[in-house]
Amino acid sequence: MSWVTVVWSAVGAACLTLGAQNLLIATRLRAREHLLVAAASLSAAALGAFELALMRAGTVSLYSGLLRGIQVPIFCLTLALVLFVREFFRAGRPWLAFASVTARGAALAVDFLHDPNLNFESISDLRRVPLLGELISVPDGVVSRWTRLGEASSLLLLLFLLDAAAQVWRRGERRRAVLVGGSMILFVLLAAGHTALVHAGVVSAPYLISLSFLPVVAAMGYELTSDVLRSTELARDLAASRREAQETDERLALAGQAAGLGFWTWDARSDRVRMTSAGRALRGFSVDAPLDLARLLSAVHPEDRAGVRDAVVAASRHGGQFEVEYRILRPDGDLKWIALRGSGEPATAESGARVLGASIDVTGRKRAEAEAQKRQNELSHLSRVTMLGELSGSIAHELNQPLTAILSNAQAAQRFLAQGNGKLGEVREILADIVEEDKHAGEVIRRLRALLRKGEVSPERLELRELVEDVLKLVRSDLINREVTVSTDVSPGLPAVYGDRVQIEQVLLNLLTNGCDAMAKTPVGDRRLVVRAEQESADEVRISVVDRGTGIPETELRRVFEPFVTSKETGMGLGLSVCRTIVTAHGGRLWASNNAGAGAAFHFTLRRFGSQPS
Q1: Cα distance between residue 5 and residue 49, in whole Å
Q2: Which backbone phi and psi does 335 adopt, to 5 degrees?
């Protein structure tokens, strides 16, 4: 076997090996860049076979036919290189890629249309020249002008590769730019340059296109080996990461079980829910039951289901964290409260939207809160009853006035009727007075019944001017008996507030009573109370009760709201404590301050209707 056969066979084997490796990788990984490397390598191997056959050709007609056929693998190699650069590097100007492939395609068309081939107008003879210790065939003939088309295609391919390598270099991928891009540029320079010298008659040698592809084979082989090594390292790292992740999951599951937490993940694209055993047990799901969002929501109480679904779906679309508390109905009929905290990851080009959630059973806390609320309502009711007991004298007087008027008017009407004098107009006026006084007594009784009512808190829209007037009507007789003058200052256009009418009236009534008590030793002419309502902020309204009493010692300003702290001889010290609890439950604040002149002021805030938390 001659050296020519050994060398070209070795080049062909190297190209075939690289092509087979990349074809296998492309088949398994469905990677287009590896498929293009395989196509380029197989085209180079075919070029080597054609070159070897050309060197062995014994007739002009055989040489001409082989020279025509070699343009097919050259076109395939050009196309594969251009597509590989675009796919692998994501670089190179598209118009240069299109121009080089189009020029090479035109050269292939001319090759089959022009006789005898693209490179020659005619071949007169074959000369035998020495190469690696043996004689090979080279043509003598007239070079075709169409060969410039092939040279133009090679020049365009070179420009395209240079432009792509420069872009990759500027991106910072310098190793790839030098190794892969440089090897391709070197191949085009060697192959196109040597072919041009052969056609110009400067050198008398065979075509060396396949040999020029060896730098590309070496670069691709090195890159493939590096990828394999990196893949091996990544596989080891991935295995270690999976072990760590498994250990983390186990620790997380253990911690979740200890804390009563249940973790779950919803993949919006597949509508699949993964949930820990603690989460399944909490909801009564079996260990192996398949879960989706609808199944997850089926355990939620019907009244809470829409809110939970909206929170989860919104997190999947927009991302971010969310918190929600809701009830679940277990298969055994047991009702439990769940506190859910989750976060969403919106969809990306690589993955679909996901929502991660952590649930904890807060039934015990909810029951404790309900019990505390019940006790608070009872304490508020007791405080109201006690306060109304203290006002019983003035309330009795408030009721006695309309009842006395009703009695007097009824007796007068009886006298008119007994006299039979027919003064029906006066009787009508008497009856109208009776109706009005009856309404007055009815209003007093209605307000008393509301304050004595013991029931659930019912927040609603409250108009402050109306609320203040109702409370002042209730304590009017007490204010007269104590010789206290009250003025109101409600800012015009003040927004409505949000609260339970009975409880807010209780707070205001308590502050008014305390103000009167504080002015017991104040001279009669100075006993003045001011009830003021004004805007505190965009979402809050402030109500103040200002007295002209003795004021509060600075050391006691904060302690007055503590339970059982009182300055009254017969007081229990619960009124202001209950008031602060009521105001705080409404999302407001209650505090006290001393006036610049005399007396003290108690202030509390309420949220504007419509601004309260949903």
Answers
A1: 10
A2: -105, 130
